[in-house]
Amino acid sequence: MNVKRFVGKNAREAIAQARGAWGDQTVVLSNRPIPGGVEILAMEGAEAPMHGQGALPAPGSGPGAPAALQNEPVTPMSTLSFQQFVRERQRRDVMQSATADGTPAPATPAASSVAATATPPARPAPVEPARFAVQALGQELGQPATPSVAAAGAVRAPLQAIAKVAATLASQSGGLAVGDDVMSELKSMRGMIATQLASMSWFDTVRRNPAQTQLLRLMLSNGFSPSLARQLVHRLPADCEETRATWWLLEVLAKNLHCSAEHSIANAGGVFALVGPTGVGKTTTCAKIAAHFSRQHGPASVGLITVDTYRMGASDQLRAFGRLMGIPVHTARDAASLSDLLDLFGSKKLVLIDTVGVAPRDPRLAELFAALPARAKRLLVLNASSQAEALEDAVQAYGGGAGSRVVISKLDEAVKCGAVVDVAIRHQLVVEGIANGQRVPEDWHEARAPLLVQKALMKQTPSIFTPDDTELGLMLTSPQEAIPARSGSRGETVLKDHRA
User: Fold this and answer.
1) For the domain bounded by 258-477, which CATH number is listed?
2) What's the count of helices (H) and strands (E) in the chain, helices before strands?
3) Tens digit of pLDDT for each residue in 26-66?
4) Is beta strand 26-34 parallel, antiparallel or unpaired with respect to 37-44?
5) Are 425 and 255 a contacting pair, CB within 8 Å?
6) Cα dihedral angle (402, 223, 444, 263), rounded to 10 degrees?
7) Which whole-number Å values give the CA distances from 337 to 54, 181, 344, 373, in the listed order?
8) How far apart are CA 37 and CA 6, in angstroms?
9) What angle do CA 412, 414, 415 make, to 5 degrees?
10) Residue 383: strand pairing partners
11) Which run of H or of E encompasses 26?
12) What's the burial of 129, exposed, middle or buried (CB within 10 Å: 0-12/13-18/19+)?
């Protein structure tokens, strides 16, 4: 039997190649898509098994076959799969070639044919090397694993063994489709072993370093990112006790959270444009800052400008606050009118621009940045109750690099505020103030790092979203990339020690 493999850009081209080799009698046995085209297996029509033409003579029933093979019962072709037909045909060719050479052929029990029909069809010959390779892999991985501190490093040895076996299978399979399922099983085995060994390393860390485990659980349950949590835990002194670990964490976080309490914009003034996504509280925050500044320097020292002409009632809300404070509110409809108003307010100590809310991925965000003059500094408003991913997205979209100014709003609505503190630390943002309510200006507070960190690490009431130790281990050992920060190298945040 002559079975050949043909590869073409599409099925029509591959079939044309097969017909060019054998003519119109070509029989296509199988086809499958491969990278760059289609692969088919075909044979000459005269050798193809024909169902429905009666019984197929059993292998070895010819006149020149041994007596043991002639006594085998004849099995109808309708009960045999094509794979078994190929297997029996190859065995018959071997027997016939051995008889022609004068060498005695190995005797095969007559019951083998019956057993072949009673059992499921066997795999083709190319799968045999794969089976032995998997058995060899099982022997390599059969050593009992003992949890240790170096368990994470031990992941490489079995994974390298799996990669070696996969390469052997790829060379032995010869590109046939029969090796695909084995390769898929090996990949699944590789991921399973990596997860198991990483989990062993995590639970060994829990056993050996209870203080580190306590800090990890505290930070993750309060919304901090695994990236920052791992960096801080690795810096924990080896001699630090559990009772002291929490105080150490408070000191380190407060040291790395930058706040401008005395020199905030509510005290120093300047020209600022409040930016941020829709609904973060830009208009209310603008009114709170203006009211706080006017109490110290008078209403005449404050200028209010709104460019939010898209949202219905946005300018009316700021005008209502302005009437209560005695500060007129002006509307800028384009970049030219905004520049003219800034020239008009040149003598003002504080000028605040209330911008329209734009989503981080909205194409109009570039238009907003282009309309803002260079002399207006951006003041990003971050909603403390937002998801950690939404905060990260907003900081990156609005250009929140090191030293950028932010205001934390809606702190009273946040169940946990660890995420906003985490974002501020990783990107080295400067927190100008905190807004935690609807009252103007009573709900405006100066940013104090120790108080903000203490609130971020406040012990939470256990809920259905609180992971246990097993789930915590899976969260920290699953493959994931740390969120890159705007400073430091390799995505790590430059952290200051609590003694610095």
Assistant:
1) 3.40.50.300
2) 19, 12
3) 888 888 888 888 888 888 765 555 444 444 444 444 444 44
4) antiparallel
5) no
6) -30
7) 94, 67, 10, 11
8) 10
9) 115
10) 409
11) strand 26-34
12) middle
Q: CA 96 to CA 55: how far, in whole Å?
A: 21
pLDDT score at 107: 47
Residue 82: predicted pLDDT: 59
Structure tokens of 391?
A: 């905060």
Query: CA distances (Å), 193 to each of 155, 156, 169, 411, in order?
Result: 8, 10, 19, 43
Please give the C-alpha separations between residue 19 and each of 8, 32, 165, 277, 469, in angstroms, as whole numbers.
13, 18, 37, 64, 64
Query: Rounded to an integer, what distance in angstroms lies between the CA atom of residue 18 and that of residue 28?
Result: 8
**CA distances from residue 185 to 42, 122, 138, 194, 376 in whole angstroms, order as listed:** 28, 19, 13, 14, 59
Q: Tell me how far apart the alpha carbons of residues 413 and 61 are, in angstroms, rounded to a whole number.
A: 86
What is the rounded CA–CA span in Å between residue 335 and residue 344?
14
Q: What's the pLDDT score for residue 367? A: 84
Task: State the Cα–Cα distance between residues 158 and 318, nearest whole angstrom.
Answer: 64
Q: CA distances (Å), 41 to each of 18, 38, 102, in order?
A: 9, 10, 34
Q: How far apart are the first and last CA of the chain?
A: 80
What single letter denotes the amino acid at residue 455? Answer: K
Cα Rg of the chain (Å, integer): 37
Tell me the HSE value of 481 on the side-chain side, using a 13 A CA sphere: 5
Count Cβ neighbours within 10 Å for each residue of 212-244 and write b for 16 or more, e otherwise: bbbbbbbbbbbbbbbbbbbbbbeebeeebeeee
- Secondary structure of 63-100 as H, E, C letters: CCCCHHHHCCCCCCHHHCCHHHHHHHHHHHHHHHHHHH
Please name the amino acid found at residue 221. Answer: S
Residue-level pLDDT at 130: 42
Q: How far apart are CA 69 and CA 58, in angstroms?
A: 9
SS3 273: strand
pLDDT, tens only, 299-336: 999 999 998 777 666 678 888 889 989 999 999 988 89
Structure pTM? 0.57
Domain ranges (residues) in the chain? 3-118, 127-205, 258-477
